[in-house]
Amino acid sequence: GVSAIYLQGQVTAIGERMKPSPESINFGDDLESANNVFTQLQQVVPFHVVGKYTTSAVHLTRTDFISWDDELAEMESLGLSWESMSMTGFMKNDLIVLHHQNPALVYQMYQVPKRRQNELEWFDAIPSELPVAVPYAALTVLRALQPEIFEFDTIGTHSSVCGMTEDKDDIDPALDVHEIIVTYVSKTMEKIVNYRGIPQVLLLTDIGYNIDDALALSCLAAYAQSGEVVLAGVVACGKDACTSACNARGWLRKLGFADEDVPVAFGRSKGTRETDVPLQPGFPIPSTAALYSQTSEGGTELILKLCRDHQAALNLVVLCPLTALADAVAADQDGALK
Q1: Distance of alpha carbon 158 from alpha carbon 16, whole angstroms
Q2: Cα 131 from chain centre
Q3: Residues 136-148: pLDDT tens digits?
Q4: Using CA of residue 138, residue 328, residue 252, residue 213, what is the dihedral sign?
Q5: Residue 222: its pLDDT value, please?
Q6: Backbone angles phi, psi at 181, to 5 degrees
Q7: How does strand 17-20 pair with strand 230-236?
Q8: What does the alpha-carbon distance between residue 248 and residue 93 come to, in Å, rounded to a whole number?
Q9: Of residues 80 and 94, which shows the higher confidence score?
C-alpha cells in the first residue's frame, strides 16, 4: 500500500479513528466519498490531516507576490515565457470575484482608502504588507515533506492531526514558515532543476478556484526540481475536474515540467461550489493538455497505476474533494492502496 495520505480539512477524533467534517469544503463537497475513503483506508494507511487553524500563523502579502513576479521577469533568459500572467495577477483574480460580490467588504478588509474605492484603483491601493492570501494547501504540502514544522496530535497508532482547534495553530513558533513558503516558491520561479528524487508524490487537486493550490504546486515543484521528491502525477477532482486538469497542466508547463514527465488525469466531477472552475488565460484545453485519458476513469486508473508502480514510496497529497480517491478505493481489486 501507499506510505501515507495527507489531507486538508477538519475532522473529529472518535477513539482511534477520524471522521471527516461536512463543514470542510473538500470533505463536504462530496461527503459520501470522504466517508468512504476514511472508512476504507485509515486503519491501514496513515492519515495526516491539516486543519484550517494552521493558517492563522501564516499569511502572504502583496510584497510576497511581487517578489515572485520579479523572479518571473528574470526567467525570460531561460526561455520560459509567462506572457502577461503574473503571480500577483492570479491572486488579484481571486479578490476580483469577492470585489464583484461585495466591494464594501473588500474595501474594509484590505484597508482601501476612500478616495481609491473604485474599479480602477482599489487593488493597487491595498497596503503592500497587508495579508492577501492564506497558503492552506501549501501548508498541507509542507506537512507531507517537512513534518518538523508542525506540532501534531497522534490519532490511533499511525495517523495525526494538527490545526483542529482555534486556540492553537500547531506550527513550531521557532520556525518562520512564511519564509519557508516564500523561499520554496521563489526557488521554483528561479527554475532550479535537479531531478533524482525519492519519495514519489501524487497530487490530487481542484486547482483553479483560487491561488492556494497553485502555491501548493509551486512549493511541491521546488522540492521536485531540487531532487528531494519526484512529482509522480496529478489527478484533478472537484466540481469541474476536467478544467482543473487543464489548469494543472498549464501550471506544470509554466513551472518547467515536460508533459511526458508528469501525467495529469481527472476524476469524476462532483462538488457543491456555486462557481465554476475558470480556465486560466493561455492554459490548454482538454484536447491540447496531454491528459492521461480523455475520460473521468483516467483519474482512477492513474491513482491505481502509480500505487502499483511505486508502492510504499508513494505519498498522496490531497487538496480537493475525495471523489477520485474513493473511486480508486472502490476499483482497487488487488489492494494497491492498502
Answers
A1: 10
A2: 19
A3: 999 999 999 999 9
A4: negative
A5: 94
A6: -65, -45
A7: unpaired
A8: 17
A9: 94
